[in-house]
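The record is passed on directly below:
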Amino acid sequence: MTRRSVVLIVLTAGLSACGGGPPPPPPVVPAPDVRVEVPLLPVEAAAELPAPEIAEVVDEILRTPMNQDPEFRAEVDRWVEFWRTRASGWFPEYLERMAWFAPTVDSALSRKGLPPSLRYLPIIESGYSPRATSPVRAVGLWQFMAPTARGFGMGVSPLLDERRNPFKSTEAATTYLGELRDRFGSWFLALAAYNWGPTRLERLLDREAPLMPRSDRLYWELRHRLPRETRDFVPKFYAAMEVASDPVRHGYDLPAAATPFVFDEVVVPDATTLDVVARAAETDETEIVRLNPEVVRGITPPGQETLVRVPLGHGWRFRENYPRIPMDERVTIVEHRVQRGETLTHIARRYGVRVADIEAVNPELDPRRLQIGQRITVPIASSRRRTSG
């Protein structure tokens, strides 16, 4: 197995959508050669990857004539006030996470020639959280639905959901956004399609405005025909861009420098829980969890190789230590699918654990309302250690 190190740089400066004398936009960063379907993204030194000053780039999103429309600007101002007041309890966390992941987004946008201002889109999609899940089960930084994600080559399963992978999802999202812009001829319409779905938007346009040129103005003219979330999507995005690009002016502190997203990647050959990965890599389990948000239930899928990130410099330790861990000690939890007639007591007896142990790792589980096919996490190793100790 070959060791690879991936370094993602953290932004430490605010951005301004309208300031003067900015640095140039970030250079296109070549993707390193990696063993994944979608390349991991930037490998740069902080001084060589300046934050993009979007006013200095020909950014179609910023140059829209709709910026001069009083009604549109009033809606943007209304959402600016939302981000400054009602969202003030959580917006600082959004900025902190953005400092961690935005360099990856910047690099992808730069490589594909897309507007740099799209770096602010994950703020309204997910608060820049790879673990975010919407009420309709869209997941990740870019809030992909499962069918769309699979169409872009991302795996979606109960154990491994690559919509949470910040690299694969960013690669897919930037490709998708570019395709939508080409299809609809307008960034406002492309953003509406991203939120509502291109097929639905296409039907609306064909029905309500079949002969009208597709433009940002058309989105605004048909806004009353859109669902509320899509109706607000573009002004909410512009407002988030305005606040996040200059947080100090809007009453927020600049985010502290985040812990760099720096790691080695190792291949886990079969089902293994992340606590065992941490033990083999001689690091803390919380760090392994932080680096691998796509491992949904703390265990890699059985019967297949999985790329797992470990802290930089710990890859060689994993490769030395992992083969020494006996096969029956590599999984400390299992996932059980409830069968007809099973109770929590039956399940606990089957695995030789206590009911209390199962309840502890499934805090939302109601033992009186088990459903056929329901997945339950069962802690194995902790019980074995207790009974053998």
Summary: The chain is about 40% helix and 5% strand. Confidence is low (pLDDT under 50) at residues 1-52, 382-389. The two ends are 36 Å apart (CA to CA). The beta strands are 4-8, 261-268, 306-311, 333-337, 375-379.
